Amino acid sequence: QVQLGESGGGLVQAGGSLRLSCAASGRLFSVNSMGWYRQAPGKQRELVAYITPGGSTTYADSVKGRFTISRDNAKNTVYLQMNSLKPEETGVYYCSANIFAIRDGRPSRNDYWGQGTQVTVSS
């Protein structure tokens, strides 16, 4: 069974930095795009950044120049380096990945989600 395990959240002061990690594990064949989303209290989940296996990246306008997404394909792991954090970026950060694996007894490609990690930015 495929799982995404996140780590690296926590409490940081405004202007500080955090690095999130997310590793895909289980019986998988390949990992396609990986990304990070966040959900602030009372708001919808939104895309922060995603990265293709080849390293092409896309960022939300609000984080460009401050956040960097990267991945280690050999470890099926994606990272999010967050600098100059703002209080409004407080929320739960979720890892997502499109993974080719055995599911319901047959190989298929599906989107998987991590359990989320809390990021709190104090003012």
Features:
single chain; 123 residues; mainly beta; 7-stranded mixed β-sheet; 4-stranded antiparallel β-sheet; 11 strands
In short:
The protein is an all-beta fold and 123 residues long.
Q: How much of the polypeptide forms β-strand, as a percent range?
A: over 45%
Write down the oligomeric state: single chain
The main sheet comes to: 7 strands, mixed
Shape: elongated
Estimate percent helicity. under 10%
Rg measurement, Å: 14 Å
Q: Please tell me the overall pLDDT.
A: 97
Structural class: mainly beta
- Extended strand count: 11
Count of DSSP H/I helices: 0
Give start-end ranges of low-pLDDT stretches: none
Distance between the termini: 40 Å
Succession of helices and strands: EEEEEEEEEEE
Write up what this structure looks like.
The radius of gyration is 14 Å and the shape is elongated. It has strands spanning 3-7, 10-13, 18-25, 28-39, 46-51, 57-59, 67-72, 77-82, 91-103, 106-113, 117-122. The strands form two sheets. Strands 2, 4, 5, 6, 9, 10 and 11 form a seven-stranded mixed beta sheet that branches. A four-stranded antiparallel beta sheet has the order 1-3-8-7, with no helix packed on it. Helices cover 0% and strands 63% of the residues. The chain is mainly beta and 123 residues long. The protein is built from no helices and eleven strands.
